[in-house]
Amino acid sequence: MVNARELLYAYTTNIGNAEYAASLFAETGAIELPYLESLGLQPRIEGPEAIREFISGLLEHVPDFGFDEVQVMIETEDQIFGEWSVERTTVDGRPFSQTYAGRLVAEGGKIKLLRESLDLVRAARAMLPGGVTDIPA
User: Fold this and answer.
1) What CA–CA distance (Å, rounded) separates 79 from 61?
2) pTM of this prediction?
């Protein structure tokens, strides 16, 4: 059976392939980015199809999106916690620089939950048309 470490590395290594990355998730698997709600965005994406669409949307803004470094801090067979970073440029020429902190929960050889935190100011600068001025009040 595939464990949490193998799933994390498969996900972070293949994030540029939305179809494959989404296939790593269970039917009820989810990505949670709870603080995205502060930007007016959906904080939970559930199911492989919705996850594929989410990753595809990210790749439209940052076509060469990929994680540069993964650091594991805590792990068991079915859970792993660490940080993964990305340094890229958006299609608009803006820097997309993030260090995500995340927890992955594996179940039955699939990702049941990937919960990540990120720097919302950097995300807004990179992804919102007006940058931080577009953050909802």
Assistant:
1) 30
2) 0.92
